[in-house]
Write a structure and sequence with these properties.
Length: 352
């Protein structure tokens, strides 16, 4: 007859060995991004040598997608702390202005947003279906009413009408959700940021598989409150010789302990952009395979409005080439800011 103590000791030893073997199994810090992203052994070697990897992902139908990653010598919560200080995080040479919306949203939140003379003249001439700046039909009508009513003071009137339109979009998203936002009517094709979001999410299995509650709360914040901390911000950016772009963005901040999910994530969706893009969803994450061994990862999918037509493939090649060349320095800058530990203490540029 077996000694019960020996049976217990043997069982315990097997259990302890199982724990040790399980703990010894390598954890893939990038598993969350699969199957869209799979990091190869040579790429991991580059990351462990403090290099940056950038990869353009397969994209179709007017979409552009990029993934980038690098090592990070900072705890995961540093990403959330910097993102809360969005004015410092987005500060840089390409940024004309940036600001966080109040809670509740206030009419004065956009007082520092000022369009330049060229943009004001574009708005003055703007008509439904024929406008060089993205606005909905009702927003275009409000701008034209302001021009007619103000006479010689039309410039300031147009500034105010433009700000009111953006504030109305934020409030509408809060109250009724992303799909309620009016479609752009600058061209013959009516493009909706809600439809663009849905198309992007359909190509983002890492979100729909693992974070469906977050996807739902991005669509409709008031009806889906389980996802956690969030805020809105605006930015006025200038990219090289291109037109300055005014963006309004909704951001969620997540700190998770779920298996297979990065320890810290920020997920953003575009509510408005006056040029180039119809919708964008960005994910920035700090993912660790062990304490002190962490990586900073960035994945963005954007639906753009200029990849169609005969020259679409040439335009795609040009924009993807520029993204590949510029992203490493941008990610290094974000890394430097996070590793500095104090918002506003490092760097000159940042990712969108």
């Amino acid at each position: 007859m077996q000694n019960p103590l020996l049976v217990f000791a043997g069982t315990t030893a097997v259990a302890l060995w199982a724990i040790v073997l399980t703990a010894a199994q390598p954890v893939d810090p990038f598993a969350f991004f699969g199957p869209s992203v799979n990091i190869s052994a040579p790429e991991r070697a580059r990351l462990d040598q403090d290099d940056v990897i950038v990869r353009m992902l397969p994209a179709d139908d007017g979409h552009v997608a990029v993934f980038a990653a690098t090592r990070l010598n900072a705890p995961p919560e540093t990403l959330l702390r910097w993102t809360r200080a969005i004015e410092s995080f987005r500060q840089g040479l390409q940024v004309v202005g940036v600001g966080r919306f109040s809670e509740p949203v206030a009419d004065a939140d956009l007082d520092k947003l000022a369009l330049d003379e060229d943009e004001l003249n574009v708005l003055r001439k703007c008509r439904v279906g024929k406008c060089d700046l993205k606005l909905a039909a009702g927003e275009i009508a409000e701008v034209q009413n302001a021009v007619r009513a103000a006479g010689k003071g039309w410039r300031e009137a147009v500034q105010r009408a433009f700000r009111r339109a953006l504030i109305a979009r934020v409030r509408l998203h809060q109250e009724r959700g992303l799909l309620a936002l009016p479609p752009y009517a600058d061209r013959g094709r009516r493009a909706s940021v809600g439809e663009a979001f849905s198309a992007i999410v359909a190509r983002s299995p890492y979100l729909t598989r693992t974070l469906p509650d977050v996807v739902n709360s991005m669509l409709a914040p008031l009806r889906n409150t389980a996802a956690g901390e969030s805020f809105y911000y605006w930015s006025h950016d200038r990219y090289g010789a291109g037109r300055p772009v005014v963006n309004v963005t909704y951001v969620q901040l997540l700190q998770r302990t779920d298996p297979g999910v990065p320890q810290a994530l920020t997920i953003s969706t575009q509510l408005f952009a006056n040029h180039y893009t119809e919708g964008s969803v960005g994910l920035t994450a700090v993912t660790c395979e062990a304490p002190g061994t962490c990586y900073l990862a960035y994945l963005n999918r954007t639906q753009v409005d200029f990849l169609g037509g005969f020259f679409g493939s040439f335009k795609r090649s040009a924009i993807e080439g520029r993204i590949e060349s510029e992203t490493p320095n941008l990610l290094r800058d974000v890394r430097q800011r996070l590793e500095s530990g104090r918002p506003g203490s490092a760097g000159e540029d940042s990712l969108n």
